Amino acid sequence: MVDLLVVVPHPDDESFGSGGALLLAKRAGLRTGVLTLTRGEAGRTLGLCPREALGQVRTEELRKAAAILEVDHLEVLDFPNGLPQGAEGEGRGQARGPGLLEHPEAEAAIRERLLGLRPRFVLTFPPDGLNGHPDHVAASRYATRAAEGLAQVVYFVRPEGPWPVTHRLRLPEWALVRKLQALAQHRTQALSVLGFMERYPERLWVESFYVVGRSPAEEVREEPWW
């Protein structure tokens, strides 16, 4: 049983969008979980492992990050990791098929976990996937549908839109330190980590969320939603 379940497609998504939320929820006494739908086998290797071993390596990176984030429940599913458009030839591993968008059965797999874990909140990508990555879009779609009638869905969103921000978490120093440590565990994806730090440094210590169904006219709350 968990109170807050993060549902994302790839190892490292949990730390970028919700590392601080996981830590603060745990500090508040909630039980937390992460469900990753793929093993991230289509990511970059940076020469740190053979391409055929990338899924296994990224799963281990995720386990280390989850331990730092004090996650109570971690599960990694084995749906195929797709590549974003134009990502071929970037030193990435080979994607097995077109990715999550072509595997709607992932929705039933998520719902099965929700029935077993009974979270009060499901935290995932917004419908646009933040950056348009097809796996992000699919994960949002499946998690939102799977949670219907079972849990409150919350999206981690950009502070500038297009999804309204209902809650904003400014991480205390201890939480920022642990979030950075968690991000550092994803060594094979170091270019993505550095790119995020270069483009969105403020999102390292301020995380923005939209509680689905909450009126966008309401004032942004500088506090957790739980």
Structure, explained:
- The chain is an alpha/beta fold.
- It has a single domain, classed as LmbE-like (Rossmann fold, 3-Layer(aba) Sandwich), CATH 3.40.50.10320.
- It is built from six helices and seven strands; from the N terminus they run βαβαβαβαββααβ.
- It has a seven-stranded mixed sheet, with helices on both faces.
- Strand 4, helix 4 (134-146) and strand 5 (152-157) form a beta-alpha-beta unit.
- Helix 1 (13-27) packs antiparallel against helix 5.
- The longest helix is centred in the N-terminal third of the chain and has 15 residues, at 13-27.
- The model has no long low-confidence stretch (mean pLDDT 93).
Task: Give the topology, please.
Blueprint: E1 4-8, H1 13-27, E2 32-36, H2 54-68, E3 73-76, H3 105-117, E4 121-124, H4 134-146, E5 152-157, E6 167-170, H5 173-184, H6 190-199, E7 206-211
Parallel strand pairs: 1-2, 1-4, 2-3, 4-5
Antiparallel strand pairs: 5-7, 6-7
Helix pairs in contact: 1-5, 2-5, 3-4
Instruction: Report on the biggest sheet.
Output: 7 strands, mixed
Spans where pLDDT lies below 50 across 5 or more residues? none
The CATH topology name reads Rossmann fold
CATH class: Alpha Beta
Strand order of the largest sheet: 3-2-1-4-5-7-6
Residue share in helices? Answer: 25-40%
Q: What count of structural domains? A: 1
β-strand amount: 15-25%
The geometry reads as: globular
Order of helices and strands: EHEHEHEHEEHHE
Number of strands: 7
N-to-C terminal Cα separation, in Å?
A: 16 Å
Tally of helical runs: 6
For the CA atoms, what is the radius of gyration? 16 Å
Q: Name the CATH homologous superfamily.
A: LmbE-like
CATH architecture: 3-Layer(aba) Sandwich
